[in-house]
């Protein structure tokens, strides 16, 4: 007899499936709850379609084994992870855990003329800074064979100092101003630039410092662990964006706390520079990579022989 | 044209873009924007920079073409592309295949027209 719900299976078979499904949802903790729920529901449906009320535990194992070549829960989750990326109502989403390489492919892809690209993590779009750099003629689409591949290691370390310095600036300013700051700081602003929500000063500091520090640590790890040049460049670019955004928000919070200047353009003036900083970091790395390639080809082969 | 026809045409274009790029590079070395310009002369191919540059990267990775920075007679240094020996062989094979596919289709269409 065909079954529609897990309850209709015999107890032992049901327990095996439930254990498997729990493990799948645990392994999908990186995804958002809706996707996990949807995936598990779809998977449950598929599994029930293969079983009936008389199915034995060995039937359940047979069905589960078929799910993954490696016969492991992990591979089953991998199979399902394609559901974790797609479009919903025309808006792209991707809830797979971001990797530095995937991040790099979106944030810096000068060969792709599209400025808005599907977001690496979450719903919506990310900015392809590579397309902006090309349209501003800072670089050519094919300036570098592989993004950042020709960039010397010490340049990455110098670039890393950008988000590092901004993270340090937040920490230092908090250390210095701590005694003079009120208990609460503005944490949100309306379109007119007026603060409309307050957080405790400690929470506001931790939030902005964390926003700057976490991506910076990721970038430092990618750089020091000798990950691919692409991974290094992308994580440094992302860290520069997050750290300058955090700096901007922290600064905005400090200047608007005492009722300071309030105008619609102030939040914008604080956030826009973070895009500029990111573009400058990416474009500078790419220009340095371009120069290194140029030097290699023109100096090593002055008569224009091909570099192979 | 219906959307199905559009889809068919865009599939055809996708298939021929590679032979068009290799064909241009078989004559002389060219830089990226020069290739884009040469291709854009042929409106029916509708090949844009967004197609050409990723394709060049893929062909280079596959060892079909090679690139090098070189001084340009006018303007700044450019990254020039040219066919490798492997690319030359590949293009010869593609031209042969293209010719036989075209003849076969022409034959069918000529017969259908009678």
CATH topology of the largest domain in chain A: Butyryl-CoA Dehydrogenase, subunit A, domain 3
- According to DSSP, the number of beta strands of chain A is 7
- Strands across the major sheet of chain B, in which order? 1-3-2
SSE arrangement of chain A, N to C: HHHHEEHEEEHHEEHHH
Helical proportion of chain A? 55-70%
CATH topology of chain B: Arc Repressor Mutant, subunit A
Strands of chain B, total number? 3
The chain-level structural class of chain A is mainly alpha
Strand content of chain A: 5-15%
Radius of gyration of chain A: 25 Å
Total domain modules of chain A: 3
Q: SS-based structural class of chain B?
A: alpha+beta
By oligomeric state, this entry counts as heterodimer
CATH class of the largest domain in chain A: Mainly Alpha
Largest interface, with counts of residues having CB < 8 Å to the other chain, equals: A-B, 21 and 21 residues
Shape descriptor of chain B? globular
Report on this structure.
The complex is a heterodimer of chains A (308) and B (114). With 308 residues, chain A is mostly helical. Chain A folds into 3 domains: 6-84; 88-135, no CATH class; 153-300, Up-down Bundle (Butyryl-CoA Dehydrogenase, subunit A, domain 3). In chain A, 59% of the residues lie in helices and 9% in strands. Chain A contains 10 helices and 7 strands. Chain A has helices at residues 11-27, 33-49, 57-67, 73-80, 100-107, 129-135, 153-177, 201-224, 229-256, 265-300; strands at residues 85-88, 91-94, 116-118, 122-123, 125-127, 184-189, 195-200. In chain A, the strands form 3 sheets. Chain A has a 3-stranded antiparallel beta sheet, with no helix packed on it. Chain B has a single domain (3-113), classed as Orthogonal Bundle (Arc Repressor Mutant, subunit A). Helix content of chain B is 67%, strand content 12%. Chain B contains 4 helices and 3 strands; from the N terminus they run H-E-H-H-E-E-H. In chain B, strands 1-3-2 form a 3-stranded antiparallel beta sheet. In chain B, helix 1 (3-27) crosses helix 4 and helix 2 crosses helix 3 (49-61). Chain B is globular and about 55 Å long. The mean pLDDT of chain B is 88.
């Amino acid at each position: 007899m065909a079954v529609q719900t897990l309850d209709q299976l015999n107890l032992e078979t049901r327990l095996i499936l439930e254990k498997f499904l729990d493990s799948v949802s645990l392994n999908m903790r990186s995804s958002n709850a809706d996707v996990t729920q949807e995936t598990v529901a779809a998977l449950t449906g598929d599994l029930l379609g293969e079983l009936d009320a008389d199915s034995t535990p060995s039937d359940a194992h047979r069905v589960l084994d078929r799910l993954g070549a490696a016969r492991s829960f992990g591979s089953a989750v991998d199979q399902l992870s394609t559901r974790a990326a797609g479009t919903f109502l025309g808006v792209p989403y991707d809830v797979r855990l971001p990797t530095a390489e995937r991040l790099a492919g979106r944030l810096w892809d000068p060969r792709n003329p599209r400025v808005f690209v599907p977001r690496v993590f979450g719903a919506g779009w990310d900015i392809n800074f590579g397309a902006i750099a090309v349209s501003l003629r800072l670089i050519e689409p094919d300036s570098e064979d592989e993004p950042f591949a020709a960039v010397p290691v010490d340049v990455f370390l110098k670039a890393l100092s950008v988000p590092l310095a901004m993270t340090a600036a937040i920490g230092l300013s908090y250390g210095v101003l701590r005694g003079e700051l009120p208990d609460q700081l503005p944490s949100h602003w309306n379109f007119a630039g007026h603060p409309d929500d307050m957080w405790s000063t400690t929470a506001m500091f931790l939030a902005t410092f964390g926003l700057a520090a976490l991506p910076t640590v990721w970038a430092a790890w990618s750089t020091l662990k000798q990950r691919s040049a692409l991974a290094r460049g992308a994580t440094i670019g992302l860290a520069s964006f997050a750290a300058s955004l955090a700096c901007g928000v922290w600064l905005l919070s400090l200047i608007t706390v005492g009722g300071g200047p309030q105008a619609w353009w102030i939040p914008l003036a604080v956030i826009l520079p973070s895009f500029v900083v990111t573009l400058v970091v990416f474009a500078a790395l790419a220009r340095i990579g371009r120069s290194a390639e140029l030097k290699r080809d023109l100096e090593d082969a002055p008569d224009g022989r091909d570099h192979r | 044209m219906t959307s199905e026809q559009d889809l068919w045409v865009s599939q055809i274009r996708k298939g021929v873009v590679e032979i068009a790029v290799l064909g241009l590079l078989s004559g002389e070395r060219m830089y990226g924007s020069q290739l884009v310009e040469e291709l854009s002369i042929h409106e029916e191919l509708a090949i844009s920079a967004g197609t050409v540059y990723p394709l060049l990267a893929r062909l280079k990775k596959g060892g079909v073409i090679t690139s090098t920075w070189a001084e340009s007679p006018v303007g700044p240094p450019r990254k020039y592309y040219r066919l490798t020996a492997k690319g030359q062989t590949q293009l010869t094979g593609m031209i042969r295949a293209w010719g036989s596919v075209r003849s076969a289709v022409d034959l069918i269409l000529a017969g259908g027209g009678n």
